[in-house]
Write a structure and sequence with these properties.
The chain is α+β, with helices and mostly antiparallel strands and 306 residues long. The chain has ten helices and twelve strands. The chain folds into two domains: 5-120, 60s Ribosomal Protein L30, Chain: A (2-Layer Sandwich); 124-305, PurM-like C-terminal domain (Phosphoribosyl-aminoimidazole Synthetase, Chain A, domain 2, Alpha-Beta Complex), CATH 3.90.650. It has a seven-stranded mixed beta sheet with strand order 7-10-6-11-8-12-9. Strands 1-2-5-3-4 form a five-stranded mixed beta sheet. It is globular. The mean pLDDT is 96. It binds cobalt (II) ion (2 copies). One cobalt (II) ion binds at residues 10, 50, 53, 185-186, 188.
């Protein structure tokens, strides 16, 4: 075992030979959008992301689904699976099979297997003082999904977030490996500050996040002011108080946005400045990759939001 439970990394890694290792992960959840096809695409992109976050290449996957067949019918389930299959195809991943159980609430995701070179694993633990922090997608998907459930926004206001949640982190992963990233993670349920905190602890460094440089989806701060905040994001913010230090200019709404639970979020990458420029150049056409801060020597495990 090269990477297991202990470091809280995105996926497990198991060595097969000196230059080949398996990388494995599983992820599934309840729908966060109305359309079953979009839900399938998002769940698949989210599951694959944990392989990309370590610099691996996903090869095969198994569907995991729970579904109330009597109430919703098999057509809806088929659309979810089609969405997952479309994203898997885009990733060059073969879905080998899967398993569905009856359940009151739909759930879907993938168990993913990929490969990685043992000497090229990008974990949470390698960030070094002087590295820059790059983020590859905007944040605020939890806020938008909650606002949509409460009918505060229409479907069209979800489209920018759906476009990003269905987007693979494959190119961000290739760019970070090519340009010598020291550490990375994907931003999901613990929010930007939470996943950043994992990196800071594992790497024994502090991360400074320039709050006003973090890209947010349109409408996020206004929707927070209107109360559209998922319970998980409020819990995150409370939990992050143990290690996050906020400058006075970072108001409550922005703090919540930075702790908002994400689905299929971007990669947070720690990389020396020259490599950061290389990644920005490689991904310039995506238009969403930005430098949001830097790695400091200490205090170890702290997130400094400034
Ligand atoms: Co992850
Ligand atoms: Co995960």
């Amino acid at each position: 075992m090269l990477v297991g439970f202990a470091t809280g990394d995105d996926a497990g890694v198991y060595r097969l030979t000196d230059d080949l290792a398996l990388v494995q992960t599983v992820d599934f959840f309840t729908p966060i959008v109305d359309d079953p096809y979009d839900f399938g695409r998002i769940a698949a992109a989210n599951a694959l992301s944990d392989v990309y976050a370590m610099g691996g290449k996903p090869l095969t996957a198994l569907n995991i689904a729970a579904f109330p067949v009597e109430e919703l019918g098999t057509d809806v389930l088929a659309r979810i699976l089609e969405g997952g299959a479309a994203v898997a195809r885009e990733a060059g991943v073969t879905i080998l099979g899967g398993h569905t159980v009856k359940d009151d609430e739909p759930k879907y995701g993938l168990a993913v297997t990929g490969t990685i070179r043992p000497d090229a694993i990008v974990t949470h633990a390698g960030a070094r003082p002087g590295d820059l922090l790059l983020l590859s997608k905007p944040v605020g998907t939890g806020i938008l999904a909650t606002a949509r459930k409460r009918d505060l926004i229409g479907e069209e206001a979800m489209l920018p977030a759906i476009a990003q949640m269905t987007r693979l982190n494959d190119r961000a992963a290739a760019a970070m490996v090519a340009h010598g990233a020291h550490a990375a993670t994907d931003i999901t349920g613990f929010g930007l500050v939470g996943h950043g905190g994992e990196m800071a602890r594992a790497s024994n460094v502090a991360l400074a996040i320039d709050a006003h440089r973090v890209p947010l989806f349109p409408g996020v701060l206004e929707l927070i002011e209107r109360g559209a905040v998922p319970g998980g994001s409020k819990d995150n913010l409370a939990e992050h108080a143990h290690f996050a230090h906020y400058a006075g200019g970072v108001d409550d709404a922005l703090r919540l946005a930075l702790s908002d639970a994400q689905t299929s979020g971007g990669l947070l990458i720690a990389v020396p400045p020259a490599g950061a420029q290389g990644i920005l150049d490689d991904l310039a056409d995506l238009d969403t990759v930005v430098v949001i801060g830097e790695v400091l020597a200490g205090p170890a495990g702290a997130i400094i939001v400034r």
